[in-house]
Design a protein that fits this description.
With 240 residues, the protein is mainly beta. The chain is elongated. An eight-stranded antiparallel β-barrel has the order 1-3-4-5-6-7-8-9. Strand 3 (56-72) and strand 4 (75-92) form a beta hairpin. It contains one helix and nine strands, in the order αβββββββββ. The protein has one domain (2-21, 29-239): Porin (Beta Barrel).
Length: 240
């Protein structure tokens, strides 16, 4: 079902993005800009059965190319393609049976190469301040993962980690699926200056893939990423 949803959205979004490049309706542009960005990614994995978590905090860095095609009803239309490195994963909020915090800590870091392909619509002065919306499909590839836990590790009478819902098998489970896909969208502001374009952006990614197998006999029925990113970007124009 998730794969079908992603394919449907891809079929809807990709032609729209191609049309942005080939549009002949508004005031034509042929701008090309390249740049990079950096910021923070706050990630949580939606597990079923539930694992109580805090936000996992990691870096997000990348490069991007932007192709501006036209101004249509005052909207500056562009296609933006990125290649990013992001540290995702989860950070557990370890509680006892009475929901009191334990001294145990556990964090899983999962490092991804991500490729979003975004339709970008901006409004404002293209040579000054603009506000913008980006949205589109994103794929990712897990390149490495590691975990970190506290020296204190509370065990039950059977010698297993003491957790209120009995979920501890994830500590010894690496991701089954290296390929990730989903939908991302964000809002931001950009300022064009003589030395380049500077922007601040907030973005949300909803993963449609699960990191673990989710069959009837598997541990988890769901295990997908949800990421909030805050990004600072710099672009310079190769062609206006």
């Amino acid at each position: 079902m998730k794969k079908a949803l992603f394919i449907i959205l891809l079929l809807l979004l990709v032609p729209a993005q191609i049309n942005i490049l080939n549009a002949q309706v508004g005031e034509q542009r042929s701008g090309i800009a390249i740049g990079g960005h950096g910021g923070l990614a706050l990630n949580r994995i939606s597990f079923d059965p539930t694992i109580k978590q805090k936000m996992h905090l990691g870096p997000s860095l990348g490069v991007a190319a932007r192709f501006t095609s036209e101004i249509y009803f005052k909207l500056i239309c562009a296609l933006q393609v990125e290649v990013n490195y992001s540290s995702l994963g989860w950070r557990e909020n370890v509680l006892d049976a009475s929901s009191n915090p334990l001294p145990d800590t556990y964090e899983r870091n999962q490092n991804y190469i991500q490729i979003p392909m975004l339709a970008r619509l901006a409004l404002g002065n293209e040579n000054g301040l603009t506000g913008f919306l980006v949205a589109g499909p994103q794929i990712g590839f897990l390149v490495s993962e590691n975990s970190r836990r506290s020296s204190v590790w509370t065990l039950d009478s059977s010698g297993n980690p003491s957790r209120p819902n009995g979920m501890y098998v994830q500590y010894n489970m690496n991701a089954d699926r290296k390929f990730d896909y989903g939908i991302t969208a964000g809002l931001g502001m950009e300022l064009a200056t003589k030395v380049g374009r500077f922007s601040l952006e907030g973005r949300y990614y909803y993963g449609l893939a699960d990191i673990y197998k989710n069959g009837k006999k598997d541990v988890f029925g769901r295990s997908n990423h949800g990421t909030i990113s805050a990004l600072l970007s710099y672009f310079f124009d190769l062609k206006k």
